[in-house]
UniProtKB/TrEMBL annotation:
It comes from the Eukaryota. It comes from Arabis nemorensis. Keywords: Hydrolase, Protease, Thiol protease. One of its GO terms (biological process) is proteolysis. Residues 4-153 form the Peptidase C1A papain C-terminal domain. This is Peptidase C1A papain C-terminal domain-containing protein. It holds the Pfam family Peptidase_C1.
Amino acid sequence: MDIGGKKDDKDNRKKRKGKEKVEKDLDEEELPRNKKYMPKTERIDRFAIIDNVDDVELARLVWKHPVVGVVPVWGDFQLYRQGIYKPPKSSESRTYPIYHAVLIVGFGVDEHGNQFWIIQNSAGLTWGEGGFGRLHRERGGRKSLFSQVYYGEKKGYPEKDK
């Protein structure tokens, strides 16, 4: 691998790691050749970006596969632990939002009829509900809280119903 114009070798990797606790580096020759350990990969045909996100269309996409969504969040987002997170409206807040990318993996409705998106955050397992969270979704609304959505497309996936 080439990093910053320098060939990446084991000595350089060790220098970059410093005092971090990391697992042993595996050379390609050391990887198990048993197929059950080899990850399955696919190539995508196109990378799609949606700027004017429609919640109804977003739900159709998420039903097929997870997508990446960019959402405005405030400082309280990093403190989220459980429940449905509802960001303040811009007019209610004295600060500006940070736009943060999350993986949208599903959607649902709680026992009170509140709709939400199920998201996975990059902050790790200590954030939210084991690394996942529920983000407020407007009832019957078409305008989404997400400012952008990104996803890969592959011809023939998902397969058409027969």
